[in-house]
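<given_protein>
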Amino acid sequence: MENYNEDELCAACEAILFSMGDAVEASHIAQALDVDKDVVKSIMNKMMDNYRASDRGIMLIELDGAYQLCTKKEMYDYLVKIAHVPKPKELTDVMLETLSIIAYKQPVTKLEIEKIRGVKSDHTVNKLIEYNLICEAGRKDAPGRPILFATTEEFLRNFGIESTEELPELDSEMIEEFKLEAEAEADGATQLTLDI
């Protein structure tokens, strides 16, 4: 990078510091840019001056020969506020699959969900509870009295229906296809276990 001008070196240093997140030693930056360590120190001093401007939300600090980008103290209130803004609920394919099983088979136990899915569902069920899309709906009258799960009013609101009776009917051919796929996956898992 010997032929690069100062602005290009500043941009490269900024990219390195932003990407790394933590403090990066001047010697490592110099090595990455193929320049002398003193050039890096000079660039860093220029960048520190630029970041001191009142229209910047971040600053560059030096920590024992290493440099790091961080937020200015004056911006902390905004960070606290944004941290309290609720994150949008994102449903993954796995969550939607699990939610569908619960919606159509409710009330249903976690073991019954796992039998249909063929995998453990603890995390997914907990996430759906956290999102208030499902809730505990009593206990099954069976050994161990497992918890039953059902959908909530929030589920109905989110999916724009008044009751679970409005859920689309499942095509019997589709159900059969799902069963065959599940059996094939279960057989494959058993075969894999036996091969090991």
